[in-house]
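In the design runs reported in the main text, the only information available to the sequence generator was the tokenized backbone. The following block is the verbatim input for one such run; it is reproduced so that readers can re-run the procedure and compare outputs position by position.
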């Protein structure tokens, strides 16, 4: 049973949210009194990590008033009857890459990285691969793409490892399940620079024209007709 006790869908939940745990306790007591067995669900419980919001805004995004629910509040709610916590906003905070991070001497200021709010809704945005390998991620850029990693003692760039393993992008996380066995969760498709086709399509469906879409994904670029 999903209850309303101070949570809210989306990134703008307000500062310093306090969950009304007494509501969860009262509902659980009523269920027990009526002989109803069930689990209380905490909807709209994303933490919306501050560092991710700051990085997106620093790379040209414009996320305002994004405050999630603190981990401490969520932990305190569990003993009050909450058996399932739903998060979604965290995985929507997708962003294109900043070329300067990977190639400091590059002269492409229009590839500065922007937020892609729609990408998490794209088909197969998340993909999972299980392998009998040993992989250690050593470095990532601010958009979450792996830039340096080790596999079985050999060094790779993120793009090299992506090609070696056939991953959809270099934006991935590795979890060791047991010695020599790992799970790789990959986000998105492609190299991550420039225009996101999925978010661009959604912007067009909402009525944005091509000039605005191009200027959004390539900040500072000027759209001109060339004869």
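Verbatim output:
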């Amino acid at each position: 049973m999903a209850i309303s006790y101070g949570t809210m869908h989306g990134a703008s939940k307000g500062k310093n949210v306090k969950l009304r745990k007494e509501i969860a306790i009262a509902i659980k007591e009523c269920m027990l009194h009526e002989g109803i067995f069930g689990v209380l669900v905490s909807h709209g419980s994303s933490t919306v990590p501050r560092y991710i919001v700051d990085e997106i805004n620093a790379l040209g995004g414009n996320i305002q008033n994004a405050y999630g629910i603190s981990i401490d509040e969520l932990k305190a709610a569990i003993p009050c009857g909450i058996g399932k916590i739903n998060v979604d906003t965290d995985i929507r905070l997708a962003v294109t890459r900043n070329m300067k991070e990977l190639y400091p001497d590059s002269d492409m200021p229009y590839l500065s990285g922007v937020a892609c709010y729609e990408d998490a809704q794209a088909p197969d945005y998340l993909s999972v691969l299980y392998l009998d390998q040993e992989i250690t991620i050593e470095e990532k850029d601010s958009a979450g793409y792996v830039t340096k990693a080790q596999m079985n003692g050999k060094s790779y760039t993120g793009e090299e490892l992506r090609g070696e393993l056939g991953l959809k992008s270099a934006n991935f996380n590795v979890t060791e399940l047991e010695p020599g066995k790992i799970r790789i969760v990959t986000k998105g498709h492609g190299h991550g620079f420039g225009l996101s086709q999925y978010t661009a399509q959604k912007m067009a469906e909402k009525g944005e024209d091509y000039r605005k879409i191009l200027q959004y994904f390539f900040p500072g670029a000027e759209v001109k007709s060339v004869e």
